[in-house]
Specification:
Udp-n-acetylmuramoylalanyl-d-glutamate--2,6- Diaminopimelate Ligase, Chain: A, domain 1, alpha/beta, 11-stranded parallel β-sheet, UDP N-Acetylglucosamine Acyltransferase, domain 1, flat, 333 residues, 2 domains, single chain
């Protein structure tokens, strides 16, 4: 078991680049919510709606902004963006998986593989011909990596990840369990009543600092590549089809699906259960709300929505009837 990390508040404030108000020698060994934090833990508050919890919190210190700090008399770390400070603080208490460097005797590794001496290859891992594993990569049990795939420095592959051939993954990525990268997409041509498969000959190119959530799938390009740029964050159970391009810094929430040959720009967000049809383009800084279906290109930045909010079923049925009549009403007007 990894030893418990501990920081003085003065150390935390310096690392986070924030102001300290309180005991600089207070020891902090963890992070938790306001309602459950103990005296040796730090918590955070980023919204006024949680002010009521400050009175009863047992946290040893609280991360907050200048305005909210006036509501708390205990130890505080103060900055303009407490949620960002919290995110940085979590990294200080997160230990890398404790896996020995080197190649397990229970791994299957082809002679043509290139593996750094600082990489960790766990039991029951399969590395195919021509695989390249760079420094400090961690490959956990049950991972399969196909031919001529490259995993760059510092990337972590959690158990039972499947990576097909000709995939390029950048530095310091996190690939969670059950992810499949490089499988064929939905590509078929109709010959009378029979489907003829379109072979997928492209690759998957993934940049650095990308995180892919559990059981997400990324298809290879049919002709050309599927490309995920640097610092993209993909939640659990997201599907990205063949030849999709996702720009730098975009985040995609769970159960979303992006159809083939769609291009998404930089710093976009897709909320949960979003869907995007094929062959459209979305510009930079577009934010799509939950359960939205995007059916044509978006050429200007902003927030976009579709679908209807929830309501009582009897009201929804009445509104659905009215919705069916809108076209005829519009023709009459």
């Amino acid at each position: 078991m990894s030893p418990i990390k501990s920081f003085k508040l003065s150390e935390l404030a310096e690392i986070l680049g924030a102001e300290l108000a309180g005991d600089p020698n207070k020891e902090i060994s963890g992070i938790s919510s306001l309602s459950s934090a103990a005296d040796g833990e730090i918590s955070f508050i980023a919204r006024e709606s949680f002010i009521g919890q400050l009175e009863n919190t047992a946290a040893g210190a609280v991360i907050c902004n200048k305005s909210l700090s006036n509501n708390y008399s205990g130890n505080k770390i103060i900055g303009e963006n407490p949620y960002l400070l919290y995110a940085k603080c979590t990294k200080l208490f997160k230990a890398k998986p404790a896996i020995s460097k080197g190649i397990s005797k229970l791994a299957s590794v082809q002679d043509t593989c290139s593996i750094s001496t600082t990489a960790s290859i766990s039991q029951f891992v399969t590395l195919s011909d021509g695989v390249c594993i760079e420094d400090d990569v961690i490959v956990m049990p049950g991972v399969y990596i196909g031919q001529n795939t490259k995993i760059s420095r510092g990337t972590i592959l959690y158990p039972n990840v499947s990576i097909y051939n000709d995939v390029d993954i950048g530095q310091n990525c996190i690939i969670h369990s059950g992810v499949v990268i490089g499988s064929d997409g939905l590509g078929f041509a109709k010959d009378s009543e029979k489907w003829i498969k379109i072979e997928h000959l492209g690759k998957v190119i993934i940049g650095s600092d990308v995180e892919i959530g559990s059981n997400s799938t990324i298809d290879r390009g049919s002709v050309g590549n599927t490309t995920i740029c640097d610092n993209v964050k993909i939640d659990n159970q997201v599907h990205i089809a063949h030849n999709v391009y996702i720009g730098e810094g975009t985040a995609i929430a769970g159960n979303s699906a992006i159809a083939g040959s769609t291009k998404i720009g930089k710093n976009c967000t897709l909320a949960g259960c979003s869907a995007i049809v094929d062959n459209i383009e979305i510009t930079n800084e577009v934010h799509i709300t939950a359960m939205s279906l995007i059916t044509k290109s978006i050429t200007e930045s902003g927030i976009f929505s579709s679908g209807t909010p929830f309501m009582k079923n009897r009201d929804w049925k009445k509104n659905a009837v009215a919705f069916k009549k809108l076209h005829n009403l519009a023709k009459k007007s």
